[in-house]
Structures are given as structure tokens and as C-alpha cells.
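Proteins fold. Shown next:

***
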Amino acid sequence: MWECVYATINNVVNGKISLELLRKWTSEPVARFVELMPGKETGVSFDIRAPVNWTGSQRLAIAADIQLDGTTVGQIAETIVRVDDNDY
């Protein structure tokens, strides 16, 4: 699972969050739609699945691609995850 938290400052913003993953990787859901309230934090989570033939044991960068009120903001959040063989 991957979680990211967002906050907004002045007004309610509708957001779409999707993940930039390695080729053949998938997330469930593909995207999350959120309503960001002024001064509040909103958390989202994704289940990420590696391909069946993935050998594991490496560090990976995963980025969150953000749209706010229909405007693409870009990849403004990124995390590095480590997946070990015993994790899946």
C-alpha cells in the first residue's frame, strides 16, 4: 500500500491522484478522486502489484501524478519503496 497526504490552503479543490509505476506494474484503484478542504489533510492509499515474473529486492521510485480542478499539476509527490522477496 502507498499513501500520500495533501492539503489545500484557500478553497475547496477537486483532485485526481494516480501513480506513475514501472511498466507492467498496476495499482488498485488506477486513480483516486478526492475533495480537498481548506486547511485539511486528505490521505489516499493504493495497492500496488508487481508483475508475476518480477525478481524483487530492489529500490523503486513511485510518483503521484496530480490533477487539481482538472489542471495537471504534475508529479509533485514521490516516494522510494523497497520490496523484498518476503514482502509478497
